[in-house]
Amino acid sequence: MLRSVILAAARSSRVERLVETAPYTRDVVRRFVAGSGTDDALRATRELVADGCTVTLDYLGEDTVNPEQAIATREEYLALLRALRDAGLTPAAEVSVKLSALGQKFDEQLAFDNARAICVAADEAGTTVTLDMEDHTTTDSTLDILAKLRKDHPRTGAVLQAYLRRTEADCRDLATAGSRVRLCKGAYREPESVAYQSARDVDRSYVRCMNVLMSGEGYPMLATHDPRLIAIGEDRARWFDRGPGAFEFQMLYGIRPEEQARLVAAGFTVRTYVPYGDQWYGYLMRRLAERPANLAFFGRALLSR
Ligand code: FDA
User: Fold this and answer.
1) Neighbours of 21 (CB within 10 A)
2) From 3.40.190.10, 2.130.10.10, 3.40.630.30, 3.20.20.220, which CATH number describes the 34-279 domain?
């Protein structure tokens, strides 16, 4: 219930203005977002790489409404990839891209062209691109664009969301050689017709999808902070004989950093998803919805002044 309310607020521009102008919002944002500019992204990447992690960088923004914004987002990614290469941070760092930030909602061809330009720049920098997955109305379009991108850029990856009923079948389609799939639970408010609603059903679906990916021929990227699912991932890695270069764990910046360090120390490949930029509102609200305790954190930050 609370999750639904927060996710509804994530789409409200009135609540967005209220949250953005609240005096101590920035303190909360800083926990989940590396900063506003490329320099902040590079600094966070350097620190994580020094700690033994790999990184995927997300320039925050979604639901772009005009071509100018979409092109500005593309240009930011091109500049970021050049900066990562010049700083010697590739291939340890790659980028994650939301197609809605590149124009998907109003011009799919433009989104594809922008994503292709980012894939070309990633190739030049010696690294990869992963397409984030947004709400279920975009899944078919995102997977179509993925298939087209993979013709010239076969290492382009995508996210699949275990809460969608279709995802086990999508995992089967994508568990092929060279295919990179990031499996997460799913962070949007979705209707029962397309998505499992209970945590238990989502977790069970996650395990079924993980089994398909870990037993397949692709490169699974297990994106979760859930201790039980991480333990099952470790078990499947042993069972299917997947070493550090054959799959990876992924977690979000600022969430369970001690667990990220534990997995690195245990010899696993761990990738931290690092968001940066000024358009943090939708991202922050999804993090708050995942864990109501974060609201208390928000409240404490406001009250402690
Ligand atoms: P769950 O939410 O059950 O959390 C398990 C435990 O992890 C909690 O008990 C808590 O300890 C900790 N935790 C989880 N979330 C927390 C939070 N916000 N703050 C503090 N602690 C927290 N979703 C999507 O729809 N499309 C996408 O493209 C992506 N991309 C993506 C990339 C990566 C690398 C990750 C890790 C996640 C995503 N997600 C996503 C988000 C994902 O769908 C999901 O909402 C979150 O990962 C939370 O689910 P968990 O699997 O962590 O389990």
Assistant:
1) 8
2) 3.20.20.220
